[in-house]
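Rotation project, supervised by the postdoc (A.L.). Task for the rotation student: set up a whole-complex structure prediction and record inputs and outputs verbatim in this book. Inputs entered:
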Amino acid sequence: MQVACESLTFTRGEFTLSCTGIFGPGLHLVTGRVGSGKTTLALLLADLLHPSSGRVCLEGVERVTLSFQNPEYHVTGATVRAEAASYGADPDAVADAVGLSGRLDDDPFALSRGELKRLHLASLLSMSYDLLVLDEPFSSLDCVQKHRLCRALEERGGGITVIFTHERQILPAVDHLWEVEGGTVRDLGAVPGAIPHWRHAPPYLKQALARGLAPHNITLKDIIEAEAACKTHD
Amino acid sequence: MIEISGLRHQVLSVPSLALEEGDTAVIGPNGSGKSTLLSLLAGLSLPAEGKIMVDGRPPRQVEVGWVSEFPDQSLLFTRVYDEIASPSRFAHLPCAEVTRRVEEAAALVGIEYLLPRTFRELSGGERGLVALATALSSGPELLVLDEFDSHLDAETAGTVAKALETSPCRYCVRCTQEMETAAGADTVLYLAHGAVKHAGTPDQIFPTLKETCFYPNSWRMREHAGRL
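Outputs recorded:
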């Protein structure tokens, strides 16, 4: 199973995004500055934009979905119950899992933004996909929900997950790192080898690298473990 | 000083609260009432009960700049230039003054290059920057930012922090899920279930949140490094 970007380009006005590379099974993290082309790549992967040249070639990938950065773009139901059901999810189970059991009959737009994002992500993640593309999944979530989402993503069995995010504090353990810079998508490679080359690494990770640590992955827990291991060997 | 007394509105209940001049960060779980508090401070909604006074005036008599997390929902114009010009044009300022304010605000936020563009061409983060420039263009006394940083990368967030430092507005109240940002504020409010559970300086507030994930990573790392 893989998603291969073959000499992919997309041009809008003066901006061009280009990408060549393969997204295999596992968790991919894509970072880059504001306006660098992350959302454009997300839309191309999910076949919601047509490339100007080249192509996105799916192999063994049938079920594809995309989570937009704005959760309200997904809303189609008039109640929280109908909204969760619209994904094919069990509304009671979803609401229970994200602490919205008392809100099942409310209008989704009566929820706070963070609550709506939670509802959206829990509904989406209750189904299975071969390719799951998430654009800014951590935005609006509080830290409790960010940790919850990290666990859900880490535990997702099989499939290709591509996360586009600016999150700098709470990240899942990932398999592969990518960066987008000025419209060019760079494949940094598999973790942990890719970690030292990651220019958008969160501050806690950069500090750890500067102290000479070699964490196995990118989470704060990995840093603390690397620190303890390094101490033991002294 | 911003003074709140006997406030009740939707989930929110704030019997009494005073905020000094400077940066205030509002933190707390989703659904705790952060956005509700911010919309009342900005004068977008009027409280069901109680009152809010900014230097002795209700928010609607104060020059307020407001930015939401999803500026798509509040922007009015197609072109970036027109959006940033809108507060000045609505105030019937002379053309030369409108131009001056647009250019000054765009330069402050570092988005001069976006002025001729249209919103459709902008990313989520860029839209946030345009909304911030629009809010700053009227020289607000009170700037209210509703989690607008959640779509910004670290470098852009740094540019924004500098722009906010140099802007002359006396009060900046922002809600954020970035605890490192909150740790840099003058005052932190921790909301839960519609109430202000803790209010004070970062050094006063974060120790009470040490057992939660609201404690800043950098503080945790510092202490961890200290222990080893």
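Student's summary: Chain B touches chain A through 39 residues (CB under 8 Å).
Supervisor addendum: The mean pLDDT of chain B is 92.
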